[in-house]
Structure formats: C-alpha cells, structure tokens
Amino acid sequence: EADIYQTPRYLVIGTGKKITLECSQTMGHDKMYWYQQDPGMELHLIHYSYGVNSTEKGDLSSESTVSRIRTEHFPLTLESARPSHTSQYLCASSYTGTLEAFFGQGTRLTVV
Amino acid sequence: AQSVSQHNHHVILSEAASLELGCNYSYGGTVNLFWYVQYPGQHLQLLLKYFSGDPLVKGIKGFEAEFIKSKFSFNLRKPSVQWSDTAEYFCAVKVEADKLIFGTGTRLQVFP
C-alpha cells in the first residue's frame, strides 16, 4: 500500500486565486514528481526533485512552482490560477536504486 | 524523441475474454518498462515491471507482459478478464533522471 497523500482531492477555484496542492509521503523516498493529466491524455511530468532543496522542471512547461524543504513534502503552487490550469495533478515518489514509483490519488483542479 | 504509444484507447470485453493491450516505446537508453493500472477513484498502482532478464514478466492479478526488443513493444496480456479488471491502464518507460514517460492510457471496460 502506497503511503503518499495528496490534498485536496478536488478543488474548484476562481480565476486569479493562489493555490497550493499538497503532497506528502511517509516512505522516506528521495525523489518526488508532479505529473499533469488531462482526460484521455498521457501523464506529463511538470516538476521533479532529487531530494531536499532540489527541484527541476519537467518535460511539460508549467506556470506552477514547487519546493522541497523537507524530504516528505513536495507542494505545488499556482500564484494566479487560470482556466487553462484545469486538470488533474498527480504526485509520485520513488527511491533511488529502485524502479517503482508510487502515486498519490491526485488532485482534480477546476478553475472557473 | 522519447515516447510511449498505446494504440487501444478504449477496449470493451465480456468476462472471460482474453485481453491484449498494445504498447510501443521510443527510447535509446537502457529500457525499464512498466504497466500501471488506475481503478475508478483510486491512485495509480504498479501492475508489473521489466528491467532485465526474462522478457516475459508476470504481475499481479494474473496479468503478464512480454518485452520484445526488436519490436520496441511491451504488450500487456491476461487470458481471462474479470469485471473487476475494469480500469485505465498506462504503459510507461523510465528514462534519464528516473523520469517516467507515459502513454495516453487504455480504458478497459469488462461487462459481466
């Protein structure tokens, strides 16, 4: 059973608001990831982290930002939400040297 | 370019039918391949993985996949599906920096 948690599960918010999507894992994994998934489309990597104070942008350009101050926590922030940010955001973690990534349940974001 | 193609977007089967979901990848490095499953309302879970050795990989719940290097394929199979197999299935390849590249997913519906 994966111990990776995302909150909130669902969020509907107005344009221009600042939002933070939370992701926490209790497995001590060093690597963490954020993926964006639109309906019927593949998951796209938008951010990843190798460890504390390490963040990198992924393959899909995103206006969001991330931080990794603690090993277990990898929040994603949108300073000013827009309808184009409406999507599902999936957080994942893995341990260097293993091949398996564990996923959270996702946050479905709707910006109106 | 690194990519994963899943040719079946939506598959509908009756219980006890056999299943094969296609997956082709494009990546020039060491190949690590995965199938993930997402049951309705749940998080992505690892179904099976290939990283070396026997190209026929067995996973959970009676699923298996065969890595065919010459065809750049990693097709998922199950001899007899059940209603509980209704889910979305994602093929993925691990590339540099432990990033996962996903296919667009295949929605499987199994009717009793």
Q: Most extensive interface: pair and counts? A: A-B, 28 and 23 residues
Helix content of chain A: under 10%
Shape of chain A: globular
Q: What proportion of the residues of chain B form beta strands (DSSP E)?
A: over 45%
- The multimeric state of the shown protein is heterodimer
> Helix segment count of chain A?
0
Features:
heterodimer; A: 112 residues; mainly beta; 11 strands; B: mainly beta; six-stranded mixed beta sheet; four-stranded antiparallel beta sheet
Tell me what the structure shows.
The complex is a heterodimer of chains A (112) and B (112). Chain A is mainly β. Chain A contains no helices and 11 strands. Chain A has strands at residues 4-7, 10-13, 19-25, 31-37, 43-49, 56-57, 65-66, 76-78, 87-94, 102-103, 107-111. In chain A, strands 2, 4, 5, 6, 9, 10 and 11 form a 7-stranded mixed sheet that branches. A 4-stranded antiparallel sheet of chain A has the order 1-3-8-7, with no helix packed on it. Chain A is globular, with a radius of gyration of 13 Å. Chain B has 112 residues and is mostly beta strands. Chain B has strands at residues 3-5, 10-14, 19-21, 24-26, 32-38, 45-50, 56-58, 64-68, 73-78, 87-94, 100-102, 106-111. In chain B, strands 2, 5, 6, 10, 11 and 12 form a 6-stranded mixed sheet that branches. The mean pLDDT of chain B is 92. At the A-B interface, strand 4, strand 5, strand 9 and strand 10 of A face strand 5, strand 6 and strand 11 of B.
